[in-house]
Amino acid sequence: MSRMTEQWVEDAWSRITKKLARTSQKIGSRFPHVSVNGTYECAEPHWWTAGFWPGQLWLVYRETKDESLKAIAEECERKLDDVIVGFDRLDHDMGFMWTLTSVARYKLLAEKDSRRRALLVANLLMGRFNANGNYIRAWNPWFEGDQNTGFAIIDCMMNLPLLFWASKETEDPRYKAVAIRHANTVLEHFIEEDGSVHHIVNFDPETGERVEFIGGQGYGPHSAWSRGTAWALYGFTLAYVHTNDEKYLQAAKKVAHFFIAHLPDDHVPYWDFRLPEDVPHYRDSSAGSIAACGLLLLADQVAKTDSSSYQNTGVKILRSLHENYTDWDNDDGLLLHGTGHFPEQSNVDKPLIYGDYYFVEGIARLRGYKDLFWL
Predict the structure, then answer these.
(1) How far apart are CA 78 and CA 72, in angstroms?
(2) Given this model, what pLDDT does residue 4 score?
(3) Taking the alpha carbons of 141, 146, 150, 155 in that order, is the dihedral positive or negative?
(4) 172 within domain boundaries
């Protein structure tokens, strides 16, 4: 990084640490999801976003050793024990939730209770694998009669690191085998030739055959939801790092090229890359921060002659977010202008906790942080 770049990164990190020191006293060991009128609304512990707040705290604690942040993050992890025991509300997002709580704490502090939690959850996540179609089932029924046993979604690429970690930790290949089979299914059915990505693919749960594409949080079945593109970009890069399988690297590069080619001038994406003119073109800052983290990791995996485009774009996204999309004083959130679920008109143009997490991770990466919780 240039001297100028280093200065803005240090400024961003300083602002992040100061703001989290303040908002942590307000939020405590709850589970923020979306900021409304400047205040983070908190979700129940079973909600898929439960790991992102303690994950932020661990990222900052890693450097500051602020014991108050550690205490809050540990209390969040303990609160998730009831979710494990409750079981009924667990879905594929266990990877998001316990990678950023239990795996993070175990990596930082070597606490055995966190290791046990993470391995238990890895077994529960592995139990959602449908061997007929080689995919991890996404959700449980949302309502009585809901038929979604065949649903797999692109977001799950970011849940696979928990399984890869479990195989390394136990020297048991079963977890990795499930992660690889799911990733191969995503490679075959979710990624289009141009690098665009489907959000939901519905499979016949008995035969494993693909039934249909579903638009989900994107504009339509064949549009290009930007956050899904970011999940794929980062997820396949992580899959490559965990397996050294070249096809995952090529998939990450293909998706990255699509993402980069469709960015607007300020490098922060719209919520979908294929939108009709008459549909509101809201930004999704969360898609930007997720993709930036993926691009920075991708840059480390390729030859220096190829890495500059990925590295430079990741930096440009994070810098634009820092300069144009942050609120350091008046909002609980870090990043403004996230879009959660436009088709349902849910959490549109608001700060989102997962956007905040990846922004903090991205800035930490630019400051030299290499030991990712995902690896």
Answers:
(1) 10
(2) 47
(3) negative
(4) yes
The angle at the Cα of 121, spanning 118 to 127, to the nearest 5 degrees, equals 145
What is the structure's pLDDT at 347?
97
pLDDT band per the 50, 70, 90 thresholds, residue 145: confident
327 burial via Cβ count (<10 Å: 0-12, 13-18, 19+)? middle
Per-residue pLDDT at 3 exceeds 90: no
Does any domain span residue 373? no
CB of 166 closer than 8 Å to CB of 122: yes
Q: What sign for the dihedral angle of Cα 80, 36, 273, 256?
A: negative
- What domain range includes position 355? 3-366
The pairs formed by 20-25 with CB atoms below 8 angstroms and a separation of 24 or more are 20/56, 20/57, 20/60, 20/69, 21/66, 21/68, 21/69, 23/332, 24/57, 24/68, 24/69, 24/72, 25/68
CATH number at residue 290: 1.50.10.10
Residues 148 and 91 sit within 8 Å (Cβ to Cβ) = no
Instruction: Say how many domains are in the chain.
Output: 1
* Residues marked as catalytic: 93, 155
Tokens of 235: 């997820």
Looking at the domain assignment, is residue 371 inside a domain?
A: no
Residues in the chain: 375
